[in-house]
């Protein structure tokens, strides 16, 4: 997966926008204004994704490309190096999980708004 494939996959999801809220290098993907993925466009390709607390540590132990979330709450976020050691299908499943975890934490009104899109 390259940066453009990552970008297009994220943008294909309902209610997703992209922006550079922190600096000119950190591309952030949000679903209804809530972050679900961050990536740095000028360094080695990686992504920060939200994860269930108990699964986050398991993934770090199983995959050398999965690290504690850089500049994030390490209990819930992982940084995943996109270096070819993890399949695109698995990367997409982690993106999907992050997206859905963020939606699950939204108020019912916001979830309903997303379903109407």
Automatic annotation (TrEMBL):
GO molecular function, one term: DNA binding
Keyword Cell membrane among UniProt keywords: no
Gene3D superfamilies: 3.90.1150.30
Keywords from the UniProt entry: DNA-binding
Name of the protein described by the UniProt record: MmcQ/YjbR family DNA-binding protein
């Amino acid at each position: 997966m390259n940066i453009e494939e990552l970008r297009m996959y994220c943008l294909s999801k309902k209610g997703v926008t992209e922006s550079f809220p922190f600096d000119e290098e950190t591309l952030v993907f949000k679903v209804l204004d809530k972050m679900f993925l961050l990536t740095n466009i000028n360094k080695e390709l990686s992504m920060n994704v939200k994860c269930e607390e108990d699964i986050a540590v398991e993934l770090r132990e199983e995959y050398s490309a999965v690290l504690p979330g850089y500049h994030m709450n390490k209990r819930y976020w992982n940084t995943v190096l996109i270096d070819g050691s993890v399949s695109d299908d698995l990367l997409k499943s982690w993106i999907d999980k992050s997206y859905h975890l963020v939606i699950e934490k939204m108020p019912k009104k916001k979830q309903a708004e997303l379903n109407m899109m």
